[in-house]
Specification:
By secondary structure, the protein is of the alpha+beta class. The chain contains one helix and three strands; from the N terminus they run βββα. A three-stranded antiparallel β-sheet has the order 2-1-3, with no helix packed on it.
């Protein structure tokens, strides 16, 4: 996305340093503002990648298998691989933890 706007800046000669100017205020405007003495208008062209406006959508599918004494366990390296993949794609730190499914706890 590309957008543009104007900044109107007011400045006055410094009382303390000869030849220097001090900013006394700035305003942001969509359209070009009129200027008076000691004021300037600066046009700013601003580009933001469209991806900054995309919020990632997460989707999960959960299947609960029938009861069995033979339960599959997820190894730690699989958890680490999943966390690393999510971290790389989103640029965030991810920690996955498998909860113990012992119903007595």
């Amino acid at each position: 996305m590309i957008t543009s706007f104007w900044i109107k800046i007011r400045a006055y000669p410094s009382k303390y340093c000869k030849g220097k100017w001090e900013c006394r205020g700035a305003e942001l405007r969509k359209n070009k503002p009129s200027t008076g003495p000691n004021e300037i208008a600066v046009k700013v062209n601003f580009e933001v990648p469209n991806s900054y406006f995309n919020v990632p959508e997460f989707e999960a599918s959960i299947q609960v298998p029938g009861y069995s004494d033979d339960r599959t366990t997820i190894e730690a390296d699989v958890q680490d691989n999943i966390a690393e993949l999510i971290s790389e794609q989103l640029g965030v730190k991810v920690h996955l933890e498998v909860k113990d499914d012992d119903p007595t706890e």
